[in-house]
Each structure stands twice: as C-alpha cells, then as structure tokens.
Amino acid sequence: MKRYAHWINGQRHQPAQGHYPVVNPATEQVIGYAPEATRGDVDTAVRAARTAYQAWSRTAPKERAAVLDRIADLLAAHAKDLVPLLQAETGAAMRVASTMQLPTAAERFRRYARGATEPDTIPLAPLPVKASPLAPGGLLGAAAVRRPVGVVGCITSYNFPVVNLAGKAAPALAMGNTVVAKPAPQDPLTCLLLGEIFQEAGLPDGVFNVVTGSGAAAGEALVAHPGVDMISFTGSTSVGKAIAESAGRLMKRTLMELGGKGAAIILDDLTDGAGKSAVGAVGSTWSFHCGQICTAPTRVLVHRALYEKVVTGLQSYAEALTIGDPVDNSTIVGPLISAAQRDRVEAYVAGARDQGARIVTGGTRPDLKPGFYAAPTLIADVRPGMAVAQEEIFGPVVVAIPFDTEDEAVEIANGTAYGLYDYVFSGDAGRAWQLAARLRSGNVGINTVQRHPETPFGGFKDSGIGRDGGSFGLHAYSELQSVVWPS
Questions:
Q1: Is the pLDDT reported for residue 75 higher than 90?
Q2: Which residue in 191, 220, 294, 392 is the catalytic one?
Q3: Where is the Aldehyde dehydrogenase domain (predicted)?
Q4: d(C-alpha 49, C-alpha 40), whole Å
Q5: pLDDT tens for residues 399-452?
Q6: What span, in angstroms and rounded, lies between the C-alpha atoms of 212 and 205?
C-alpha cells in the first residue's frame, strides 16, 4: 500500500512520526497510509506559508486568476486518476464521486479565478472636515479596501474532502492568502495529491501546504500556531467551539461552518404533485451520500392533514433505494464513513425506539458484509424534544413530526441549537417567503433543496460564524482596510 507524505513548501515531506491506515468504508480494507503530523511538521508548514505570503500577496490579481484557472483545468484532466481514490476513501457512491466530488472542486477554482479580479476597493465620497488639534481641516477622500488576511489554516470535513477544501483554498488563494490545509483523518489521501497538481499549475512553493493526522493533535497545533492568522473550519459544533476558544486567545479570525438539523416544513396547501416533489426532496437525506451532509432535511415537519400521506410516501421512497457496493452504478445508498459512525447512527435509532417513536422503515443493519452500512431509516411520531429531533445524526435517518399551525411549525423548526439550512414546501410562494423570515436559519429553500452557488452560506446559532460562497467567500478571506487622504 502506498505511503503518502505531507506536502510542504513545494515538496513531499516525510513524517517523523510515521503513518496511519486509511480504510475503504465499503470493503473495510486499507487503501493507503497517511502521514501522522507532529507539531514540528505543522510548524514547518506554517513557516513555509508565512514566507510565501510576502510574494503571493503582492502577485497581480490577473496572475493569481491564471493559476487558479490552470488548477481547475488540471483537476479535470487528472479526474481519471483521482476519482477512484476519492471514491474509495470516502465510500461515496460512484455517481456522487464522479459528478459532485471532483467536478465541483474544479468549478470552485474556476469561480475564484474570476473572483481574483473582482474589484477589491469601495470608493467613498469625499467629505469636508473641520480643523482640530489632531490635524488641519480640508476635504478628505477615502476608500475601503479588502486586503488578504495572511496565513489561513483550513480544517476540512470528511464527507466532501476535496470539494470542502476547494471551497476554502480557492477564495483564500484568490485574495492573496497562503494556506495550510488539514483534511479530516478518515479520507485525506486525495487532498495530499493536490499539492503537486497545484505546483504543476504554477502555484509558487509554500503557498499551499497539506498536513494530516489520525487524531486531533495536528489540527490543534495548527489552530494554536502564532503564525496562522485565520482558521476556516467545517465540522462538528463541539469541535468548532473548541477551535473558537483556542483561536480567540490569539484573536485569530475564524470562519465556522458547523452542524445542522435541517427542518423541512410541509404546509397544508400542497397539491399531490408538489407533495411528491417534497417527498423526493426530503428523501435526499437517504439518497445523497448516505445522509452525510450538514444541509440535509433530516426533520420533516408536516401539517397534520397531510402527515400520514407524507409518511407513507417517504416510506415508499426509502424502501425503493438500492443499498450496496458504491462502485456499482445501480447503488444509491453506500456505506457510512466508519464503523464508529455506523454505531453512532444505530444508537440514535435505538434511543428513539426506546422513547416510543415509530420506526416506519429501516432501523436495522443491512445484511451486507463487509462495509459500514446503515439502512435508510424513517422514524415517525417523534416528539420535538427527543435526541433524534435535536441532535445532528449525520446518517440516513429522517424523523417525522406533525404540526397543526404555522406557529407550532416555526417553534419546532427553531427549537434546536442549530440553524444552518431549513426548507418550506407550500403551494403559495408568498406564504412560504413570509414563513422563511421567521426561521432562525442561515439558509432557507422554498420548494427546493437545490443550492444557489452565489448565495452567502453559513449558519445561525450553533451552526457557525461567518459566510462563504460566491463573492462572500472573498469577503470571508479578507480584512477591510480604510485608506484616507487629503483631496
């Protein structure tokens, strides 16, 4: 099995502490060995990024754009080699790995190649000011200018390792920052190959670095390093809070995209056709990467008049899904990332059963070996206070909760610690728009679970701090500087 190396300062960097195994979630076989970072490895990477920052931050935006465009081209060109590895380490169904893992990463670099040349200066109207003991009076001109933050530590999630890293690194690099990436321990191998691709595209040495580790030590060292100016993190709320506490001691800038417990509110005015669309939208929790996505509509809140019809529709949807080998093109539901995550999902389902909820379908482990499989599970008659209705499960589990009034639906939807992505399904778009305004959520989909790539993405409450996406991603990886001069 291949032993991978860190990517630091434009070259492979062998770890002083050895390697750890990376396992294919479908076969339970080791597919490669990732390097185990020490604090010294992290320090070397940060120092390389710090040195490279001086030149990269002064590189002309058009030159940065050209490099990012070439990265997008090369990601597409190397897809034949990268997709099989990415699929094997994530356990994603091949249809997801081939269409939404690597291609989306390339799209993000292409988007921020354009972003590198977006205007970074906001001119402000001249103002007359009176003389003071500080300075003589006169007419002052001014501008607000976005400047790079510096060295950005990017700590990414396991569900979409390359896409998530691209969503951080691309806008950070476009703005003139340098990057030290720390991928999730479960599936870092493809991320470790990106350095050579970026180098081939013309990215200077030290501008992009990757270190990995099997536990929390590498990430903790990156967050605590005084040479890092900003931490961009995607992952669980508990880890995000620990990162924020550590980063706060050095006043590091942070961007936190944390957990979610999406509510899909189905109102009583849906037609049968629209109701089927809503069922399909909620069913994406099962059919898209086995529910391992923070924006999934994992809670379906249904008006009591439609409740049993929707539950029956969801049951039929779930039971029609093919579970199995993710390499098989007929497979819709592949494995979870690890045995630990499968056990966690099963524990939530067992807890709901013990509390009196109705397991409509699923709830038992599929008879598939090897692999970390969990069946698409629908739990009905859930009370809002149950753990399955409050906590992020990150697996193929949907809970159904009835409501009688819009006020009750809003109270239930807002009644968790999260606020990342909610949905409203209604036959009246104006009604849905008014309801969306009452939801404490950073994103609301009306009659769709589709994402708009230019919208600001992030959460309320425990779902995070800050926004990325589109031009807002450029804002996230920059500082505003005010410049004033006499006219």
A1: yes
A2: 294
A3: 17-483
A4: 14
A5: 999 999 999 999 999 999 999 999 999 999 999 999 999 999 999 999 999 999
A6: 18
DSSP sequence for 97-116: IIIIIHHHHHHHHHHHHHHT
Residue 126 neighbours by CB under 8 Å, 6+ apart: 139, 140, 141, 142, 487
Cis peptide before 486 (omega within 30 of 0): no
Which domains are delineated in the chain? Answer: 6-258+463-486 (3.40.605.10), 263-454 (3.40.309.10)
Q: Are 310 and 275 in contact (CB under 8 A)?
A: yes
Which residue do the tokens 């976005």 mark? 146
What is the reported pTM?
A: 0.96
| Mean of all residue pLDDT scores within the chain | 97
Residue percentage of the chain with pLDDT more than 90 = 98
Q: What is the pLDDT of residues 337-360, one digit of tens each?
A: 999 999 999 999 999 999 999 999
117-124, long-range: CB < 8 A, 24+ apart: 117/61, 117/62, 117/65, 118/471, 118/474, 120/61, 120/145, 120/146, 120/147, 120/474, 120/478, 121/145, 121/146
Q: Is 191 a catalytic residue?
A: no
Tell me which of 257, 346, 392, 406 is the catalytic residue. Answer: 257
C-alpha 289, offset from chain centre: 13
How long a stretch of residues is the chain? 487
Residue with tokens 């003991």: 133
3-state secondary structure of 175: coil
Is beta strand 121-129 parallel, antiparallel or unpaired with respect to 30-35? unpaired
Q: Is 294 a catalytic residue?
A: yes
Nearest C-alpha neighbor of 185 from the set 73, 409, 34, 290: 34
Does the pLDDT of residue 324 top 90, yes or no? yes
Angle at 268 between CA 266 and CA 269, to 5 degrees: 105
